[in-house]
Design brief:
Layout (H helix, E strand, L loop, with lengths): L12 E6 L2 E5 L3 E5 L4 E3 L19 E3 L5 H4 L9 E4 L1 H9 L1 H5 L2 H4 L7 E3 L11 E5 L8 E5 L2 E5 L18 H13 L4 E4 L4
Parallel strand pairs: 4-5, 5-6, 6-7, 10-11
Antiparallel strand pairs: 1-2, 2-3, 3-4, 8-9, 9-10
Amino acid sequence: MTRKAGKQAAKATIHKIRPDIVKLQGWSDFYYIRPLRLLIDAGKARDFLAHDFQGMPVETIIFTHLHYDHVGHAPLFPKAALLASAESIEDFRQDPEGTMLDEVMASNPCFARLQPIGLTRLPALRHLAIIPTPGHSRGSICIRYQDILFTGDTFFRQGCYGRVDLPKSVPESMQQSIATVLSQKANLILPGHDY
């Protein structure tokens, strides 16, 4: 189940969702919230290059979960706070490769900076609601910003949900997590992949 280094990157594009939110679309989708200087997830390594992020100062990255296709560009931001759920960080510290599904990414020293969201007092967090949604991974979260729900790999637009057959998945929790997502009544759902 572990991805090896050296695979080709997907064609990457940048889309403006609205004036304050940019979608960076590659193998997976991740999002930049301009007024908060915040990335939600960090995509798959090599989808984008450092110069693609010019004009997007990043102070904080929040990971919806720690799979390789959601954390890949984190090393490009050595000064950014890296945040994830306490459960994701605990799983990563016990089994880095099994959590990230990538032997190379799991060994990157930048992930020593991971901090639990609940123990962090960053200004950007005042504008967000963090919603635990275990299933795809034990530590999966969704993030609400205004009327938008960022769902990572918990929930996709066509009513699909993330795989629950991976290491650290919690299949018995997915049904409740989907109910939690649907109860949010967000005007816009922005998932981690466009399927």
